[in-house]
Fold this sequence. Notes:
Radius of gyration of chain B: 22 Å
Strand content of chain A: 15-25%
Mean pLDDT of chain B: 89
Helix content of chain A: 25-40%
Radius of gyration of chain A: 21 Å
Strand content of chain B: 5-15%
Order of helices and strands of chain B: HHHHEHEHEHEHEHEEHEHHEHH
Mean pLDDT of chain A: 96
Number of helices of chain B: 14
Helix content of chain B: 25-40%
Number of helices of chain A: 13
Oligomer: heterodimer
Amino acid sequence: MITERRPILLANARILDPARDFDIDGDLLIADGVIREAKRGIGAAGVPEATEVIDCRGKLVAPGLIDMRAFVGEPGAEYRETIASASQAAAAGGVTTIVCQPDTSPAIDDPAIVDFVLRRARDTSIVHVQLMAALTKGLRGEEMAEIGLLKAAGAIAFTEGAKSVTNAQVMRRALTYARDFDALIVHHTEDPDLVGEGVMNEGEFAARLGLAGVPTTAETIMLERDMRLVALAESRYHAASLTCAAALDVLAHAKEQGLKVTASASINHLTLNELDIGPYRTFLKVSPPLRAEADRAALVAALASGLIDVVMSDHNPQDVEGKRLPFAEASAGAIGLETMLTAGLRLVHSGELPLMTLLKAMSSTPAKILGLAGGTLRQGSPADVIVFDLDAPWVLDPLELKSKCKNTPFDEARLQGRVVRTIVAGRTVYEYV
Amino acid sequence: MNIAQKSTFVLGQRHLLGIEGIDRPRDPLRAARAGPIDTALMNIAQKSTFVLGQRHLLGIEGMSREEILGLLDLAEEFVALNRQIEKKQSSLRGRTLINLFFEVSTRTQASFELAGKRLGADVMNMSVGSSSMRKGETLIDTAVTLNAMHPDIIVVRHHASGAVELLARKVDCSVINAGDGSHEHPTQALLDALTIRRNKGRIERLIVAICGDILHSRVARSNIILLNALGARVRVVAPSTLLPPGIERFGVEATRDMREGLRDADIVMMLRLQRERMNGSFVPSTQEYFHYFGLDQKKLAYAKPDALVMHPGPMNRGVEIDTAVADGAQSLIREQVEMGVAVRMAVLEALSRNLPNA
């Protein structure tokens, strides 16, 4: 739903701006695609003519979410997700900026493909679309991609998507070269040899199910290696998806040393653990695998303390054929754009995490890391804004999901809190009625 | 015209291997020695009224001690029946049993087939080579297809852990897990328990050493759960590369030393080591594996003098077990096969009592 761009007054709301720890009851005025002001008592009298006044009593207003890691199927996997369907899903979940991953077919390793994807986004998306380009040509982990030209074409960071660069020399050179362009490198930290045939977290539960395990060491070794290389190259580095307590120790040490390192955790790893797999539920097969409860709790604590900077959806649509298989043979991945905020609110409702910290990790911090203008409600900022109900109870019905694939780990889950309005550049693109 | 009824001719030998010697009957009384049929044993189904409290048998996990003992007691009756000449029962008459094997297995399939036939079921064998079809699609598609043919029981073996559970969710009939990946093989654990109980008179407080490739073994998993449920003391013995991480939380003692593992053991249960796992990936070589973990007379001497040896088969002689031990006086390996048929009859019988119109 795209409405005309009239000024909007979000009235009588609780307004949260995580960029400045701002939390008041008041009104937010949007006009010409930017935020005019947010304060107590603007009221219907003080607004321009033809302003749409929306009563947000009992609701919360916050910056639109910026999802740092979402797989969108364009080009090459449109049967799983298109930019259009991903943007619909994003809008329904309060995500106003998607950051696409380059592990498409062909991979986004060429300025022409960057241009193609951004044009497709301009034509078909109802939210902002940004993309990360491949770090190496064809994601083969052998030769560096054209980091300078790709950045000039619009890529905001460089990554191998769900793969890791195993060759330390290649990684070192890429990090070193990227520094000349102040390019951010985002890396999935998993040693593929240690992962081997593993399909779930190594330990008692995997042993009981008779499934091959992935040790947390696979992640720690790769992250530890990267930290040494980052220290050599002095470049900007972001760990794409950390999942375990041991990796957090490595990250903390790197930050203490003053390395320019940040890290994400996926909403799945923050809210679910290996036991949720239960009787071989393939919708909970993700990569890296869901970890033990102690790791999950450590991850949440690290998010609360600021050690983990960003929460991302790790949105990865997989079709029915890929999931209706025995666990070891099923595709890994879960959709997450539509549920990331709601799932995150579980942590808020359970008292594990302050609401402001959650919003910060989903909006203002990723904006800062990626150099994007959103993620705040400051005057003059882009009017990417969400209105949400903190408490509304609901049950997730997979048929109502906007995403092309329905592989959500929250299938039929009882949830609390939902997005009721998403505004992108001053236009309402989603409204829950 | 009715010659067969008139003649009382009895062939004086057990086999017909050739014409040579056929005119010289060696033991004309052998046929008579088999004895009359015990009529009491012919109506076994009426003796035990045990009913399994679940529609499927997917694993030992989740079964109560009472259910396990109920199955063993029922199997005991079938052991007696199977030693009779008249082995045919009719409790599964009219029922259709499908053996769906995605992984090649001669003995388990034969055992289930015989069990089904002895209970009067119509048995169909389907072997689906995993290489010949695309794996996962085949599983669900095959399940849906077979389901449309109204079978009453499907016996499934599959190379992927959890595959049998997945299939069970797609069909209306009872499903029996005949081995799924490295997960469970419940009928093997039941037949092992029956074999142990018949030879030792109990399972409680026995020391059972399970030796070999614990990591990949569904037999080990099912046995660990079952033996723990019945109060045995379970040890696992393997090189550390073949022990699953977290094994210490299974309620077993783990060791990599056969001397330590077999000390005072009542039962030594050997596991099969797949050939592709011996070439440096999990253990350096067959020779080295046999040296440290192969069961020969010397290592068997670490166990109690009356210790008994088991193996789920098929054996790699000279890899995990020495021929002298496998065929020796302490070996129960052949008896395990016999118990296999009885246990599978018991499982089929118990599950069939849950079927509609039973």
